[in-house]
Amino acid sequence: MANSKKKDVNFYRRVPRKYKNIIEKSVIRYSEEADQYDNHRFISEKGKFFHEIDMEAFFSILGDISGKRILDVAAGTGRLSLELAKKGAQVIALDVTYDMLLEAKKKFSPGMNIFFCNADGRKLPFKDNSFDVITCIRFTHLVSKEDMIDFISEMKRVLKPGGYVIIQFGNKTREIFIGFLEEFLHSVIKKEYKRTTYYPKDYRYLFKDMKIVRKIGIGFTGLELVARLSKSLAMNINLIGRIFPFMYLTKKIIIQAYKNDH
């Protein structure tokens, strides 16, 4: 349950304090930088722009969510959870990193319909058929494809029949054309973790028991430079990523997939 020093009925804790595997290693990393996570990523003009195109893409799919029960998996510091709650959804912000959720909690005003849950997305502490929608942003690059199978299996279990998931993935196809150098600089020169990215066949396998109804590509290379000159122009260019085959040149692809009614 929640830390005894913070008796909060809106906070549930299920993750142990000691971590064992590769996913929990990322917990240590994000625990250490939780209080600076947003400052490092979303305070700059570049960060604000990428946050804006993320939100525009997600909500172009979500539409009216007032009253819907939504689980935000890997909620982090709550940037998507906050927007979901503002639009009237009943939100559960779930993350394996306790300190990230503490940062998220600071953003929410009293009275917002939000519950924070510190748990592992591979073992969701919810009953079957509990949610109308499940979202996941800026997370899949951190885990292996094998682990992602477990995450999606659990999402499907707790999703109501006819409900859907919206998940953001790194686009592997782009690397074939223009992204190889960027990935090389990230993983070899900067010596940071190698990001997991996905081909179209990976989506088909991950969602083989669900129905993929929509794909949206977001974030062309160099788009932030265009945004410095004209944000409206950059936003319009970004919309091209929704058109086949241009979506496969974008940095990320958002998948919407429905759970069958039976």
Characterise the protein shown here:
With 262 residues, this protein is of the alpha/beta class. The chain has helices at 22-33, 37-41, 45-62, 79-86, 98-105, 145-158, 172-189, 200-206, 223-229, 231-239, and strands spanning 11-13, 69-73, 90-95, 114-118, 131-136, 159-170, 211-218, 252-258. It is 40% helix and 20% strand. The protein has an eight-stranded mixed beta sheet with strand order 1-4-3-2-5-6-8-7. Strand 5 (131-136), helix 6 (145-158) and strand 6 (159-170) form a beta-alpha-beta unit. The longest helix is centred in the first third of the chain and has 18 residues, at 45-62. It is globular, with a radius of gyration of 18 Å. The model is unreliable at 1-7 and 16-20 (pLDDT under 50).
In a nutshell, what does this entry contain?
With 262 residues, the protein is α/β, with parallel strands linked by helices.
Strand order of the largest sheet: 1-4-3-2-5-6-8-7
Average pLDDT, to the nearest integer?
87
Radius of gyration: 18 Å
CATH topology of the domain at 11-167 and 199-212: Rossmann fold
Q: How many strands in all?
A: 8
Question: What's the CATH H-level superfamily name of the domain at 11-167 and 199-212?
Answer: Vaccinia Virus protein VP39
The coarse silhouette is globular
Please give the share of residues in helix.
Answer: 40-55%
Q: What structural class do the secondary elements suggest? A: alpha/beta
Termini Cα gap? 34 Å
CATH class of the domain at 11-167 and 199-212: Alpha Beta
Q: What is the strand content?
A: 15-25%
CATH architectural grouping of the domain at 11-167 and 199-212: 3-Layer(aba) Sandwich
